[in-house]
């Protein structure tokens, strides 16, 4: 073997060894964490969580897990979420929000005509009632500690399947109305309505659109709503336990017949209450 060829082989093997060493020192690429949800759903990030945030809003974790409720009208797109662990570590991920098609409900021959052509007096009443309710269900920087667990309890004994009309786009006798903010359950007239969790009654009132209504604060920004009741058996500031009867199913307010309407606001987001009835492990999770 001549000297030139020997030197060439030495250089080749030295280059190969250096390349292998460099490869071993290069850290593996870690894929960014993300989770995908539809409007009205809840995302989950488990594991020793202490504090959670979505964009500029932050709140405490629930039993070591961060939950990110997505409002039914949240603009589809990519959002930054983060969590602070009990060990002080700050982690971030991407929340991918997808649009959920609006189910169309056309309610024809609506029986209560005062809700079709609303009088000036009733319009003023509804505005006044909304001004009272909106501050109660909106996002707050300081919230009471959570007194609930997930999944929450059922709002009625032998709860039937929901009618799938959360977020529905509605018309009354051909006239457009606001989207439906809750889930309706075909529970019969006079059946007991149950609180989905421990909490404190925020408001009990007869309202123009929602009829006899009860709002309960469960801590951590979770508010449950029960509308169109025949009657209620609780009062404001009363402490409530999970499964306690708070009233009876009715047909007061803007309805076509008796049923149980349940709504949920979590950190100000209007979400499908059905997602809080499932095992949390079945929620879309950050990975």
Q: Considering DSSP H and I runs of 4 or more, what fraction of the residues is helical?
A: 10-25%
Beta content comes to 35-45%
Anisotropy-based shape: globular
Order of helices and strands: HEEEEEEEEHEEEEEEEEEEE
CATH topology of the largest domain: Glucose Permease (Domain IIA)
Distance between the termini: 57 Å
Number of domains: 2
The whole-number mean of residue pLDDT values reads 91
User: Which class of the largest domain in CATH terms?
Assistant: Mainly Beta
Instruction: Please state the second-level CATH architecture of the largest domain.
Output: Distorted Sandwich
Query: Helix- and strand-based class?
Result: mainly beta
CATH superfamily of the largest domain: Glucose Permease (Domain IIA)
Radius of gyration: 26 Å
Number of helices: 2
* Count of distinct strands: 19
Give a description of the structure.
- The chain contains two helices and 19 strands.
- It has helices spanning 3-25, 120-137; strands at residues 34-38, 42-46, 49-54, 57-60, 65-69, 77-85, 90-98, 104-107, 169-172, 175-177, 183-185, 192-194, 199-207, 211-217, 222-232, 239-240, 245-249, 260-266, 269-271.
- The strands form four sheets. Strands 11, 12, 13, 14, 15, 16, 17, 18 and 19 form a nine-stranded antiparallel beta sheet that branches. A five-stranded mixed beta sheet has the order 1-7-6-3-4, with no helix packed on it. Strands 8-9-10 form a three-stranded mixed beta sheet, with no helix packed on it.
- The termini are far apart.
- Keywords: Hydrolase, Signal.
- One of its GO terms (molecular function) is hydrolase activity.
- Its EC number is 3.4.24.-.
């Amino acid at each position: 073997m001549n000297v030139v060829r020997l030197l060439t082989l030495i250089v080749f093997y030295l280059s190969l060894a250096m390349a292998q060493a460099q490869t071993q020192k290069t850290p593996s690429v870690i894929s960014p964490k993300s989770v995908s949800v539809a409007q009205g759903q809840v995302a989950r990030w488990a594991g020793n969580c202490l504090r959670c945030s979505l964009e500029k809003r932050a709140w405490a974790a629930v039993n070591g897990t961060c939950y990110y409720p997505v409002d039914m009208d949240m603009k589809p797109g990519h959002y930054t979420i983060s969590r602070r662990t009990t060990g002080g570590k700050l982690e971030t991920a991407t929340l991918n929000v997808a649009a959920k098609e609006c189910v169309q409900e056309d309610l024809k021959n609506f029986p209560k005509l005062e809700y079709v052509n609303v009088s000036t007096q009733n319009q003023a009443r509804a505005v006044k009632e909304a001004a009272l309710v909106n501050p109660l269900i909106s996002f707050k920087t300081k919230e009471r500690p959570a007194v609930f667990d997930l999944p929450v309890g059922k709002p009625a004994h032998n709860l039937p399947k929901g009618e799938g009309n959360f977020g529905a786009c509605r018309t009354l006798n051909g006239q457009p109305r606001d989207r439906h903010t809750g889930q309706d359950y075909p529970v019969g007239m006079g059946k007991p309505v149950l609180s989905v969790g421990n909490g404190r009654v925020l408001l009990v009132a007869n309202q123009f659109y929602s009829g006899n209504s009860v709002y309960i604060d469960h801590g951590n920004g979770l508010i449950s709503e029960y509308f169109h009741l025949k009657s209620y058996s609780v009062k404001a500031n009363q402490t409530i336990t999970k499964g306690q009867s708070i009233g009876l199913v009715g047909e007061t307010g803007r309805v076509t017949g008796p049923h149980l309407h349940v709504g949920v606001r979590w950190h100000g987001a209007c979400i499908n209450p059905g997602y809080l009835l499932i095992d949390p492990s079945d929620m879309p999770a950050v990975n």
